[in-house]
Structures are given as structure tokens and as C-alpha cells.
């Protein structure tokens, strides 16, 4: 019997998949538990999707783990999330090395607790020579702030005379983003059924295909990833153009 994985066209895989991992709190609430319970159970989803992308040969996976707006959540939840981040990194570093996953962080890492920063730096350093999946974690991340920071860098270059403002173009702007050198996502997956971008990769998703699922993130598994990729592969990506069939 054919599975969803069997239906995937390996000649038409997205290079880069981005995921808004939403619904942990609602998942916990349904079970009568505190929100942090949902976050803890979401770790398995992260492991499955990271493993699934690596097995398929996806080159880049970006996970929206913590936004700048998330700092406004209750202190107990934020503290629990930071502790969970540290514990997960410590437990999973050997798996990342074994699977040749290369870790990169985007976002305001300086705003994270020192112990989180230390563990993240160590994990990035330990995996820097890996040649498999590139895993980007968006932590204390804001798409708007990333654009503002890029504009500041360009303004500084213009101010010190190393860049003519007349020469600023999309390529130069992209080179000043945190994702410079990384292809834009072809596929963005959002769980929990919400229909919004939530300040995520605002520049990079200009022509990204969206896949929205009502499934809450702690329930998201490899089969759901395969379904999202199959949906992506059925779409005609025109980039604003009209594709004329060849007679």
C-alpha cells in the first residue's frame, strides 16, 4: 500500500521549508494541563520534522521557536521555555552530530538568558562542519526588526562611504539580512489553523507557498510533513508571471 512518502516527487523538493510551530498552549489546555506541558510535548514534533527533512534531503529547515512578542507571555511560561531549550539542546546534541545537522540561530540571541546563549553557541560551534540538513532556529526573532537591522547596516555603509545609496538593490539588502546566503523558503507550514504570518521572515516569504493545517504542533508528525510537501508539489509556482504552455 502506497504511503504519502511514496507520493513525493524527489525531483521537485523544496530546498527550504519554514515552520510556524503553533498550538502548544491549546494542546495543553485540551488536556487540562499548563501551557509548558504543551511545549514539552512539542519537542517530539521538532525531532520528527528535523529527522524527516534530513531523510528526504531537504537542505534548509527554519523553525519559529520564540518571537520577540513571546517575551510578553507569563514569566513562568517564558522561564519554562528557556529551561526546556537548554535541556533539549544538551540531550539532542549527539543526535544532531550523528545526523550531520548544522545548527544556526537567527534573532536577538543577546536577549536570551546567559545559559541559553552559552548552550546555543556551543551547539552551533559543535555542528558547524556538518554537511546534512541546515537547521535554523528563530529565537527572540522579529521579521520587522530583521529588516530594520538590515536597513541600519546599509545606512552605516552609505554613511562611511563604502556603499553608494544609488546602488542599493534587493541583492544588497538580502546580503544584510540574517539569512544571507540561504535560499528563501519555498514552503511555509503553519500549524493550529491560524491564518497569519506572525512577524516571521517577512522579506524572505515574498513568493513562498503556504500550507495551513488545523493540527496543533505537538501532534504534527512526519506524515503531516509529507502531506504538506505533496500539497506544495501540486501547485504551479508562477512568481507573478503567466506560464504559457509550449505548443
Our count of helices gives 7
- Listing every helix as H and every strand as E from the N terminus to the C terminus, the arrangement reads EHHEHEHEHHEEH
Query: What is the terminal-to-terminal distance?
Result: 37 Å
Low-confidence stretches: none
Characteristic key phrases:
247 residues, alpha/beta, 6 strands
Describe the fold and architecture.
The protein is α/β, with parallel strands linked by helices. It has seven helices and six strands; from the N terminus they run E-H-H-E-H-E-H-E-H-H-E-E-H. It has helices at 24-30, 35-56, 75-98, 114-127, 143-159, 170-175, 222-233; strands spanning 16-20, 60-67, 102-106, 134-141, 187-190, 209-212. A six-stranded parallel sheet has the order 3-4-2-1-5-6, sandwiched between helices. The longest helix has 24 residues, at 75-98. The two termini are 37 Å apart. The relative contact order is 0.19.
Brief characterization of the structure:
By secondary structure, the protein is α/β, with parallel strands linked by helices.
Itemize the secondary structure elements and their pairings.
Layout: E1 16-20, H1 24-30, H2 35-56, E2 60-67, H3 75-98, E3 102-106, H4 114-127, E4 134-141, H5 143-159, H6 170-175, E5 187-190, E6 209-212, H7 222-233
Parallel strand pairs: 1-2, 1-5, 2-4, 3-4, 5-6
Helix pairs in contact: 1-2, 2-3, 3-4
Amino acid at each position: 500500500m502506497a504511503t504519502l512518502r511514496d507520493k513525493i516527487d524527489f525531483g521537485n523538493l523544496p530546498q527550504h521549508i519554514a515552520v510556524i510551530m503553533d498550538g502548544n498552549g491549546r494542546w495543553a489546555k485540551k488536556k487540562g494541563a499548563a501551557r509548558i506541558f504543551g511545549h514539552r510535548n512539542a519537542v517530539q514534533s521538532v525531532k520528527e520534522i528535523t529527522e524527516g527533512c534530513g531523510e528526504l534531503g531537504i537542505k534548509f529547515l527554519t523553525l519559529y521557536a520564540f518571537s520577540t512578542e513571546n517575551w510578553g507571555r507569563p514569566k513562568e511560561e517564558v522561564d519554562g521555555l528557556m529551561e526546556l531549550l537548554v535541556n533539549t539542546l544538551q540531550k539532542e546534541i549527539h543526535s544532531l552530530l550523528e545526523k550531520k545537522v548544522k545548527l544556526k540561530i537567527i534573532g536577538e540571541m543577546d536577549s536570551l538568558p546567559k545559559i541559553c546563549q552559552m548552550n546555543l553557541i556551543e551547539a552551533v560551534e559543535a555542528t558547524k562542519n556538518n554537511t546534512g540538513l541546515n537547521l535554523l532556529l528563530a529565537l527572540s526573532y522579529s521579521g520587522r526588526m530583521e529588516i530594520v537591522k538590515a536597513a541600519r547596516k546599509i545606512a552605516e555603509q552609505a554613511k562611511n562611504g563604502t556603499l553608494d545609496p544609488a546602488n542599493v538593490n534587493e541583492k544588497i539588502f538580502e546580503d544584510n539580512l540574517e539569512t544571507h546566503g540561504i535560499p528563501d523558503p519555498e514552503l511555509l507550514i503553519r500549524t493550529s489553523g491560524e491564518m497569519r504570518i506572525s512577524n516571521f521572515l517577512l522579506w524572505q516569504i515574498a513568493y513562498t507557498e503556504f500550507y495551513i493545517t488545523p493540527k496543533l504542533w505537538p501532534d504534527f508528525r512526519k506524515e503531516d510533513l509529507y502531506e504538506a510537501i505533496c500539497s506544495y508539489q501540486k501547485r504551479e509556482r508562477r512568481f507573478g508571471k503567466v506560464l504559457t504552455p509550449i505548443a
